[in-house]
Amino acid sequence: MSLWVDKYRPTTLAKLDYHLEQAEDLKNMVQKRDFPHLLVHGPPGAGKKTRILCILRELYGSAAERLKVENMQFETASKKKLEILTISSNYHTEVNPSDAGIHDRIVVMELIKATAQTHHIDVGQKEFKVILLSNVDQLTRDAQHALRRTMEKYISTCRLILCANSTSRVLPAIRSRCVRIRVPAPTGSEIKNILHSICKREGLHLPDEFANRVIEASGRNLRRAILMLEACKVEQCPFTADQKITEPDYQVYIRNTANMMVSEQSPKVLLEVRNRFYDLLTRAIPCDLIFRGLLKECIKNCDDQLKREIIGIASEYQHRMIRGSKPIFHLEAFAACYMAIYKKYIESSLEGFM
Amino acid sequence: MVPAKRSNKWCVPSFDCEIINELPVKRTFVKDSVGELDKVLPNVSLTQNNFKRRKHETSLSKLLEACEPQKLSELAVSRQKQNEISNWFQYKASKRQPSMLVLSGPSGCGKTVAIKLLAKENGFDIIEWITPIDQIEDENKRIMRQGDKFEDHMIRATRYRTVLSNCSKQLLLVKDLPNVYHEDHKSFFMLIEKYFQIGKEPVIFICTETGNSRLMQTLFAPDIREKFGIDLISVNATTQAAMKTMLKRVSGVLNSIAGDMLYVSQHIDEILSNSVGDVRSAVLNLIFISLKVPERHLKSECGLREETLGLLHGIGRVTNPKKKLDGNSLKFVHDPEEIAAFFQSQSVVFVQFLQENYLNTIRTIEEATVASDILSLADVLNSEWRDRNLGKVALSYCIRGLMLANEKPVTGWNPVRKPRDDHMNIRRCLVTAETRWYESIIKPCSKKTNEISIENKDEDMEIIIEED
Amino acid sequence: MHAFLKTGKLGAPTDVKKPSTSRAKDDKKDLTPWVEKYRPKNVDDIVEQTEVVNVIRQAMKHGDFPNMLFYGPPGTGKTSIIHAAARQMFGSMYKDRILELNASDDRGIQVVREKIKSFALRKANPIGPDGKKCPPFKIIILDEADSMTGAAQTALRRIMEKEAHSTRFCLVCNYLSRIIKPIASRCTKFRFKPLSDEKSISRLEYICNEENLKADRSVLEKIVEASGGDLRQAVMCLQSITRLKGKNYEITVDDALDVIGLIPDEKINALWEACKKGNYSNVETLLENLLLEGYPGSQVIEQLNEKVIFSDELSDKQKVIIGDMLGECDYKLTEGSDEYLQLLSIFSTILIAWKSS
C-alpha cells in the first residue's frame, strides 16, 4: 500500500488542486512546439514534483508513467566508478545528480549526452526527450557550468526540467536560459481543502479544528501535512478535535537540545550537546534544519539586540559549515558561542536587578 | 654519470645490514646459510662465526619473527578467546566434517599467531592459502583464473598429506581472499556451498577489520553465517595491560638475540602510550626505535630521531598546555611550533582529535567559545583544497589557539578519545528524513529500526595517557 | 552576472523533419528566440550609442577596422553592432569571415592557440565569389572576453600582432578591468552606455506590434525598469510571457513581475515597515511567508539594496551598517548558505539600525 502522499498525487495538470492559473499557463506552454527548458522552484512540499510529473504526462501521455528504475554507471576521470539511481520512462530520465557528491559534473554531462544522442524514432509528436534534474541548487559550481554548456549544445534533442528549492544558488546563466516556474507553498485553506478531500475519499471524518492544527504544525508544507494526517490516523481513528499530533521526533530532540543550552552554560553541557548533535547527524538530519531549529528556540527570550547578535553568529557558523567539511565543528562552535553570550546576558540582567 | 663502482661507496646503507665488498660467491653462501638458520631460530645455538654474521644480516622482519610467541601464555589474545578457539578446534573441527570459522578483529591483535599456536596445540597441520602473484598455468598451459585456483585449493588441498609432518589432522587457513570475491559475492557463496558438500577439512578465514574492507558485512553477513553454520569468533584489540606484558617479554627476547644492536628497555613506555591495540606495530616500533645508531651519526643528523612524538602525546600537550616561569613571563613547556611541525602531514586527523578532546580540559564556557571558534575556522581552512599550505596554517593556528585559549586547564585524568565518524557520506535531505520518519509510524511493522535509540556502533576506543 | 544572460546562442532547433507545409515553416519562425529575430540587421538600427555608431560608420566607409574592444553593461548592443557591421561589409561572405567564440565554448589557452590561429591563418580574398569587392580581412569576435584566463589572453596577444594584416579582433566584455593591459592597449576601446528607458520601450513596442501582442505601456515600463537597461533581458522576458500565456493576451504587470522573478513591492514594504516598528516576531513570520512563496533570497537582497540606497529616512551611518550586512549575506548566499538564516540576519540588522536612530 502506498502512502497517501503518493496515492492522492494528481496526475494531470487539469486535476491540480491549487495554483490553477499557473496550471493553465503550463498547459498553454506544453501545447506549443517550442517547449523551453524549465526551472521549477519553490519551498519543499509545495508541489514542484507533482507539477513536473503532470507536465511530463501532458507532453507524452500515459506512457510517461511507465517507469523503470535503473542504476546508471559513470566513470570519473580518476577511474572511480559511480552508481547513480535513475528513474526513467521512454521519454524522460530523472536523476538527482547531487547524489554523486563532488563528481556531479560527470553525471550531468554524461547523462545529457547519453540521452540526447540516443534519439528515439517513435517519440511521437515531440522530437525531444526530457531530463529531469532534482536538487539543482545543490550542484557544485563546476557542474552548473557544465550544465549550461550542454544545455545549449543538445537543445534540439532534449529539454531540461530543473527542480530546486531556491534559485539563489543556481547560476544566473542557467536561470536566464530557462523559463522560471515559481511554485509557492499552498495556503492554509488550500491545504485544508486537500485534507478534507483525502479524508472523504478514505471515508473518514475530519474535524475542522483538528485540520487547522495539522496545517499549523505543517508550516504550509503539503507533503508534511498529509504525512502527519496519515500518521495520526494510525495512532487514533476516527479523528477527534483535540487529538495529539505526532511531531517528528527529531524536532522535539532539537528543541530539547536548545533548552539544555538555555538552562545551563558550562563545558559539561556543551559536551552533552555535542553528543546530541552526533545523534542527529547519524540520523541524516540536514544540518540546516538543526541550525534553524536551534536558533528558533534559542532566541525566544532574548531582547532584540541579543537576537541580532545570535542570529549573526548562527549565520556565520552556518556559512562556515557549508565551506568546511565537518558539520559537528560548526554546530558545536555555535552552541558554545551562544552559551557564552547568553550567560553574559543573564548575568548582566541579574546585576541590574539587584 | 658517476661510475657504478663509486656509486656503491657513497650509498652506505644506514643500518649496516649488508657487506658491500663481499665477493659474490661468498655472499650467496652466506645468504643460504642464513635462510636455513632463520627457520630454526631462535632455538638452535649458532656457531660463533655464523652468529656474528647473522647479527649483521638480521633484518627487521627476522627480528619480528623472533618475537612471535612460542607458548600459549605468551599470546596477546585474551584467555577467554583462546578457550573459545580451542573449543572450536576440539568440538567442531575434529569431527572430520566440513566446518568453517571466521576470526575477525582489528589488525595486529594476534589473530594469526593465536590460530597457529592453538592449531599446533590441538594437533592440526596448517595449510595456508597465499594468493599467487604470478599467473598460474594448469597442466594444459592455460592460464587459470585466481578464483578457480582458489576453489581448487579449498576443495582439494587437504586430500594429500605432506610427508614432513606427523600431525594427523589438517586445517586450511585463508588470510587473504582472492580479490575476485570482493566484487563477486555470488561465486563466493557458491564456493562455500560446494565446500560444505564435498570438503573435508576445517577452514579458518581471518578477517581483518579495517575501515574500507567490508568483508564481514558482505561475504560473512549474519544470514550467510547462519545458513551455512559458520562460526564467528571476534577478537578485541589488545588491552593495554596485555600489551605491556607482551612488550616486556619481547624486549627480553630482543636483548638476548640482538643485544648489540638494540637498546630496548628505555622505550617501552613511550611505545606503550602510542600503540592503539596493535601488537605488530608496537613490536615493529620498538625494534626500530631502539636500533643502535653508530656514534658518529648520533651527534648530528640523527639527533632528532629521539624526538618521536606520538599522536596521543601531541594531543595531550595541546589540550593540557603546561606553562613554566621563564624570567617573569610564563612560557609553554612544549613549543607549539614544534608540535605543529611534527603533525604537519596529518593536519586533518590531528584537528579532529583535538576537537573530540579539547572540551575535557576546559574550565569555562568562554574559553570553550574561543576554542570551538578556532576549530571551526580550522575546519574551513582544511577543506580549502586550492591552497595546500592552508593545511599547515590551520594546524598551527589550531594548536596555538587552543593552547592559549585554555588558561587554566582542568587537571585530572582524561582519556584521549578517537574522533567519531560523523557520517558525512549520508545524503542529508529533509524530504527523505521526514518521509522515512512518518513511514515508520504509518507502517510500524515494516520498519522497527527507526527508533530514537541510536547505537554507537564503533565503540569508542579509549586510550590512556598518564599525566606526564 | 548579466554577462551570462546570453541565449543568443541557443539557436533555433534545427530538427524540423515535418513535410514542408506552410505550418511547419510558421513553426520554425516561431522557434527562433526573439533576441535573435529582432537583432538589428543594420548599423543604423542600433538603438542609442551614437558615438560608437558614428565611428563604426566612418570605419566602414574606409573599408577597414582597427582591433576593437567593446565594453559596457549587458544587453546594450555590443554584439549586435559588430554583427550588423560585418553583415553590411561582407554581404554574402558574412558567414565565412566571422568566427565567434563565447565563454560557453571551452576557451582555455589551447583553444586560443588552435581554433583562433587556424582561423586567423585562413586567407581572405579581396574579391567575393560574386565578383563584388569585399574587404580583405576576417573578424574574430570574442564574446565575454573578460572570462578568459590570463594565460589565454597573453597567448592572444601574439596572435593579434602576427595576423594583423588579415584579421581584426573584436573583444566584447562587461568589465574592462579584467582584460590584461597589453590587449587593451592594442584595441580601440568603445564604451557602451546603458540604454535609456525611452528607447528600450519603443523597441519593445515595436516587437509587440510585430508579434501581435497587447501590452500596456505601463507594463512595458515595468519590464524595462526591472531589466535595468538590459534590452536583451527585456525581450526575453516578453517572449517568456508569450510562451506561458499564449498570444492575443493582454499582458499584466503581475505576469511581468512573475516572469522576471521580481518580488512585489508591497511584500518588501511590509517587511520594511515591520523592521521600522521594531517588532521582531512580526518580521520573522513575514519572512517565513515570503520564503514559502518561493521567492529567491538573492532577489530579496537585490531589491532591499535598491530600497536602502534610495531611502530618505535612513541616515548615512545606518545605510552603511545595512549595506555591509547585505553584501556579506549576498556572498554567503552564493556560497550556498541557508536562505532563512541569512535573510533573518539582514532583517534583524535593519531592525537594530532603525532602533539606533
From TrEMBL, chain A:
Q: Which family does it belong to?
A: Belongs to the activator 1 small subunits family.
Q: Some GO term, biological process aspect, for this entry: which one?
A: DNA strand elongation involved in DNA replication
- A Pfam family recorded for this sequence: DNA_pol3_delta2
Give the record's keywords alphabetically. DNA replication, Nucleus
Q: Which PANTHER family match?
A: REPLICATION FACTOR C / DNA POLYMERASE III GAMMA-TAU SUBUNIT, REPLICATION FACTOR C SUBUNIT 3
The UniProt entry, under CDD domains, shows: AAA
- InterPro entries documented for this protein: AAA+_ATPase, DNA_pol3_clamp-load_cplx_C, DNA_Rep/Repair_Clamp_Loader, P-loop_NTPase
What residues does the AAA+ ATPase domain cover?
Answer: 34-189
Q: What is this protein called?
A: Replication factor C subunit 3
Would you tell me the Gene Ontology cellular component terms? DNA replication factor C complex; nucleus
SMART domains for this protein: AAA (SM00382)
What SUPFAM superfamilies does its record include? P-loop containing nucleoside triphosphate hydrolases, post-AAA+ oligomerization domain-like
Function of the molecule: Subunit of the replication factor C (RFC) complex which acts during elongation of primed DNA templates by DNA polymerases delta and epsilon, and is necessary for ATP-dependent loading of proliferating cell nuclear antigen (PCNA) onto primed DNA.
Subcellular localization is given as: Nucleus
Q: How does it assemble?
A: Subunit of the RFC complex, an heteropentameric complex consisting of a large subunit RFC1 and four small subunits RFC2, RFC3, RFC4 and RFC5; the RFC complex interacts with PCNA. Forms an heterotetrameric complex with RFC2, RFC4 and RFC5; this complex has ATPase activity but is not stimulated by PCNA. The heterotetramer of subunits RFC2, RFC3, RFC4 and RFC5 interacts with RAD17. Interacts with CNTD1; this interaction facilitates crossover formation.
As one GO molecular function, the record gives: DNA binding
UniProtKB/TrEMBL annotation, chain B:
What keywords sit in the KW lines?
ATP-binding, Cell cycle, DNA damage, Nucleotide-binding, Nucleus
A GO cellular component annotated for this chain's UniProt record is: nucleus
Name listed for the protein in its UniProt record:
Cell cycle checkpoint protein RAD17
Q: Which GO terms describe its biological process?
A: DNA damage checkpoint signaling; DNA repair; mitotic DNA replication checkpoint signaling
Q: Which family does it belong to?
A: Belongs to the rad17/RAD24 family.
Where on the tree of life does the source sit, at the highest rank? Answer: Eukaryota
Q: Give its localization.
A: Nucleus
Signal peptide, first to last residue: none
- Principal subcellular localisation of the protein: nucleus
**Annotated GO MF terms:** ATP binding; chromatin binding; DNA clamp loader activity
From TrEMBL, chain C:
Region annotation (Disordered) ranges: 1-28
CDD domains noted in UniProt: AAA, HLD_clamp_RFC
UniProt domain AAA+ ATPase: residue ranges: 64-196
Alphabetically ordered keywords of this record:
ATP-binding, DNA replication, Nucleotide-binding, Nucleus
Q: Does Glycoprotein show up as a keyword for this record? A: no
Which stretches does UniProt call biased (Basic and acidic residues)? Answer: 15-28
Task: Name a single GO biological process.
Answer: DNA repair
Give the record's family classification.
Belongs to the activator 1 small subunits family.
Q: What is this protein called?
A: Replication factor C subunit 4
Origin species: Camponotus floridanus (Florida carpenter ant)
